[in-house]
Specification:
- By secondary structure, the chain is mostly beta strands.
- Helix content is 8%, strand content 57%.
- The chain contains two helices and 13 strands; from the N terminus they run H-E-E-E-E-E-E-E-E-E-E-E-E-H-E.
- A hairpin with a 6-residue loop joins strand 9 (127-137) and strand 10.
Length: 239
């Protein structure tokens, strides 16, 4: 009788004890992110101006992401229960990201493409992402339940500005892994999670696909051969 009473008390203490038994459920997500690029530099010599000495040179140029700026994202959650510990999720959303590329000479001096141009370029992107995930959950303990998540999908950049020195391609393909915890409250589940997203497609739009590019801006694209996206996301799911 004592064990039965304790079991009944534990069941009573749980918030929304049957919420995970639903075949479908929905929600929304808010979050912050830190995006960067993996930069593959071009080995082709380019024309540039040393920002410190003002000397005009032809040489290879080093480029890297110098500043990580926080972005944010919003999305929608749709969840299909496959079994007690496994769920299939579709979470479309909108991601706002910003990265700063800097350009340096072999000596480490900042360089620029020409008169009036800068040695750094801000790269903004607003992709719509369409990912599918598999969510593996542990046994529920009281009002929390840890889980791991993995999946992938496709994204479409909707913020292309053809006047920018560095133009990104429209489409990217990515995979994503992470972990989180379901926290059960009286009226909803609150699920914070951390994920790491890796893009596979080259995001750098080549000069040949751009029209009327200013001569000074050729430098910023010619110095790079490939850009791939990487992103760490802290997401808060409300389900």
């Amino acid at each position: 009788m004592t064990f039965c009473a304790l079991g009944a008390q534990a069941q009573k203490a749980q918030n929304r004890p049957y919420v995970d038994d639903k075949l479908f459920h929905f929600g929304f997500q808010l979050g912050v992110n830190f995006a960067t690029f993996h930069v593959a530099e071009s080995s082709i010599p380019v024309e540039f101006t040393d920002a410190r000495t003002g000397q005009h040179m032809v040489d290879t140029v080093h480029s890297r992401v110098s500043t990580l700026l926080p972005g944010f994202h919003v999305g929608f959650v749709s969840d299909l229960r496959l079994c007690k510990f496994l769920n299939l999720r579709f979470c479309p959303g909108l991601l706002f990201t910003s990265r700063t590329l800097s350009y340096q000479s072999a000596k480490g001096n900042p360089v620029k493409g020409g008169i009036g141009t800068s040695s750094t370029v801000d790269v903004l992107a607003i992709p719509i992402y369409l990912p599918f995930y598999l969510k593996w959950s542990a046994e529920r303990e009281g009002n929390y339940r840890p889980y791991v998540i993995a999946g992938g999908g496709v994204s479409f950049n909707v913020s292309r500005d053809h006047e920018k020195p560095v133009l990104l391609n429209t489409t990217d393909y990515f995979c994503e892994v992470g972990f989180g915890v379901d926290l059960y409250f009286n009226w909803f589940k609150f699920c914070p999670e951390i994920t790491y997203r890796i893009g596979f497609a080259n995001q750098l739009c080549p000069i040949s696909e751009r029209n009327e590019v200013p001569v000074d801006n050729l430098f910023y694209t010619d110095a790079i051969s490939r850009l791939t996206s990487h992103c760490v996301c802290l997401t808060f799911n409300f389900e």
